[in-house]
Amino acid sequence: MSLQFFDTRRRKKLPFTPLHDGKVGVYNCGPTIYDFAHIGNFRSYIFTDTLRRWLEVKGFDVLQVMNLTDVDDKTIRRSQEEKLPLNDYTARYREAFFADIDTLNIQRAHVYPEATTHIDVMVELVQNLLDSGNAYKAEDGSIYFSVSSFANYGTLSGKRLEDLRVGERVSSDEYESKDDVRDFALWKAYDEADGDVFWETPFGKGRPGWHLECSAMSTKYLGHDFDIHTGGVDLVFPHHENEIAQSLCGIGGDFAHWWLHNEHLIIEGRKMSKSLGNFYTLRDIIEMGYSPREIRYVLAATHYRSKLNFTFDGLKAARAAIERIDEFHASWATYPEGEAVPEATEAIERAEAGFFSAMDDDLNVSGALAHVFTLIREINALHHEGRATQGLLPQLTELWEKFDHALSLFNPFGEEAADPESERIDALVAERWQARADKNWARADEIRDQLAAEGIELKDGADGTRWKRK
RNA sequence: GGCGGCGUGGCCAAGUGGCUAAGGCGAAGGUCUGCAAAACCUUUAUUCGCCGGUUCGAAUCCGGCCGCCGCCUCCA
Known about the structure:
Layout lengths: L3 E4 L4 E4 L7 E6 L10 H19 L3 E6 L6 H9 L4 H18 L15 H13 L3 E3 L5 E3 L38 E6 L9 E3 L2 E5 L3 H11 L2 E8 L3 H15 L4 E8 L2 E3 L14 H6 L4 H10 L6 E3 L1 H20 L10 H19 L4 H20 L8 H15 L6 H4 L4 H16 L3 H13 L2 E6 L2 E6 L1
Parallel strand pairs: 3-4, 3-10, 10-11, 12-13
Antiparallel strand pairs: 1-2, 5-6, 6-7, 7-9, 8-9, 14-15
This protein binds one RNA strand of 76 nucleotides through helix 1, helix 6, helix 8, helix 9 and helix 11.
């Protein structure tokens, strides 16, 4: 099967071919850096990371761009509450964001453009839209995009202008100065409440509207036509719809050719919200004692277009699944010398084919994981018979690294690797090994109990004991 | 009112016309082991919300019903 993705606009899975041979440009709607990102945000970033990683495994040269929104109503308000200049305020959360994605082993995008450092390209776009007649300056001094000037408005989300329930959910006075309540702001005129946050432009003093930055920055780094644009489902309308309208009218080209959207997650079956008390940042979950890899596993293991039920039972199940993965990986070192048996080679080849076809099918991570676990079971069964040998390791290792490149779930993350007490523990384990050789079961069990009390589990093998923190 | 999604074993979760309905977790029994742990083997959905229909054949397509949910406002 060839690589295919589900495109929101065309509403079906279609074979993916990039605009330029071997190269793929991807733009991800990123965070607004006014607070710590929550666990739902990270589902999006795990999704975009998986997309980028899979494209890389498939041999594409990927250019990934993710915006950081560093100016909007909430950001301005919060910075004022803390009496900090906007940049000082956002710096704290920009730093936290990068620390968090590093924690989850999410690869860094190649470019992280920020709104406040791209005012010039946004101003140019607004000017183009004014010149082309797609935008107008309202009485309040703000610049609005005229939705009715763009015949194809609504093609991404499947909404028709006449169906929109205008004014029903937002007080109408907010829209007093617009020609049409469905028009959206490109440029917001300066208001005293904005304090010192404003830019002087040919069309007035103010700040950019929300949708503008993504059109301006994506095309600046990826071109007027680029391959893939991603975001959460909530962004389909109006954010992405508006991006399309302003880009097509003010920049030209076809803008993004593929639109991929990830579903949200729910927590223990309920929508995540602060009022329900089930709102978690990544840091909250880490503090509860779950490892980054366990969290990544849970966030990755449900297909990105399905609602993910994030539960603590699920995190525990992920812990057990990862232990199985790590046990398998660790057991390679105990394989005896010898050529690979045909069953082993065949199992590895089946796993590779299955994993690739699942991932090629719109990033079916659950399906891909099933093939990994089947491989683990089959090779373990051979190992049980003494027929898993060193000879199969080159092929297995190569495939394992591909798996890990794609999903980053199969090798320990950096901070898991080293244990500060390994020397002391190794010494106790060695002493116990000797005690067992002397058939001094009392001493052997005493050491095992002592380590168990510290949360360290021992596994005796034929030629040594391995240990692990639970 | 408009548009759209979902309902698969105890839990999580693939599969969307046809081999025995993936896989993980959990549970039960067994093998191995000084005892454990891990590993291995076996068992755990004659059935995919319910009722009809289309078809040689449906969890997969169509219709109806029940239940849950999303978007139409900021939001991953």
